[in-house]
Amino acid sequence: MYHRLEEKIHEAEFLMDDAARRSQVGTPGALAERDAQVFRAGLHLNRLNNEFEDFLFGRIDLLRGQDGRRGPDGAFTSVDPAEDAVGEGGEAAIGETLHIGRLGVLDADYAPLVIDWRAPAAAPFYRATPVDPGRVVRRRVIRSKGRKVLGVEDDLLRPELSVTLDGDSLPVVGDGALMAALGRARSHTMRDIVASIQAEQDLVIRAPAGGVTEVTGGPGTGKTAVALHRAAYLLYQDRRRYAGGILVVSPTPLLVSYTEGVLPSLGEEGQVAIRALGSLAEDAAGASADVYDEPPVARVKGSLRMVKVLRRAARGALEAPVPAVRQGRGAESGDDLRLFDDEPAGAAPAGPAVPASLRVVAFGRTLVLEEAELRRIRNAALGGTAPVNLLRPRARRLLLDALWAQAAAGRSFPDPELAAEERRAFDEDVTTEDSFTCFLDAWWPALTPRAVLAAMSDERRLGRWARRVLNPREVRLVARSLRRLDERGRGPLSVHDVALLDELDTVLGPQPRARVRQVDPQDQLTGLDEVTTYADRTAGRGRRDRKAEERTDYAHVIVDEAQDLTPMQWRMVGRRGSNATWTVVGDPAQSSWSDPEEAQQARDEALGRRTRRSFELTVNYRNPSEVAEVASKVLALAMPGTRPPVAVRSTGLVPRFAVAGPDLGASVRAEAERLLDEVDGTVGVVVPMGQRQRARGWLKGLGDRVVALGSLEAKGLEYDATLVVSPAAVADESPAGLRVLYVALTRATQRLTVLSAEADLPDADGVPDLLRD
Ligand SMILES: Nc1ncnc2c1ncn2[C@@H]1O[C@H](COP(=O)(O)OP(=O)(O)OP(=O)(O)O)[C@@H](O)[C@H]1O
Question: Which residues form a coiled coil (predicted)?
Answer without folding.
Answer: none
